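Can't paste images in this forum, so I'm doing it all in text. The chain is below; anyone willing to post the predicted structure tokens underneath?
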Amino acid sequence: MSGLLGISIVNYRSAGDTGCLIRSIVTGRATGPQATGPRIAIAIVDNSDQAAELSEIAGSAERAGVTVRVIAGHGNVGYAAGNNLAATWLLAEGADVIWVLNPDTRIAGGVLASALDVLHAGDTAIGATASVAPGGGPDLGMVDLWTGQSGRPPAGGVPGSSKLVYAAGHSLLVTRRAWQDLGGFSEDFFLFYEEADIALRAARLGIPTTAVPDLAVEHTGGVATGATADMAAKSTTTYFHASRSCIIFFRKHYRHRVPFAAAARLGYAAKALLARRPDAATAVIRGTVAGLRA
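Text version of the structure:
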């Protein structure tokens, strides 16, 4: 084991957020129990046109002793493919753990070296960092396996058998061997549902999910994609890709439930229309059809 923590960041017109995240990583490393903290390599994949800004951010981190590579020039390949590009370089560098972080996350507490604690569950494991939400606990997501509706698990409750609970994708730890066995994220998904898909595939391979309670990550959410819970403010990009990815998820894993998921999406389109968002309703329908045709 090399003791190298590899961090993957996919940037889409969010260089300011990416810079703040990297500064929080550098600060967390410097204030760890050892003066230099863990060995870190960061791959920033630019899915937009901010290579120059990102190179300045990378230079600042490298002067603080963190290895950074900016991967750019490939256009917008999506979130899954972007992280796979980052992981390819990080694994070649010898990373023992791949830590996927959204640009709009920040290291909020704990010890950065704790990210490597996911290896305590074995050399093949997935890990969730701690939530900064009231009540704490691991940072998890949940999806309904009949409708595709996503959200957070109930606090202190046990989700029903029709719910899939998974480590939140904005801060996801994957051991080197687990990433290799899984083949990384499925590039069937351009945006959304990647973490639910990888959780299902991991479970089928017997790869456990563990919690890393000594490392907390704060997540603003939806900064680049407009993925807010407010239907009036949510972007049409989110409406489209969430619908497309939802249907692809069911086609891959629960084909017999596709009609239920598609009906739920049409119901969601009607809800968007009632919220006086005809553009959103159209995006939901377009995304649903795109998912059925993918």
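The mean pLDDT is 93. The chain has eight helices and eleven strands.
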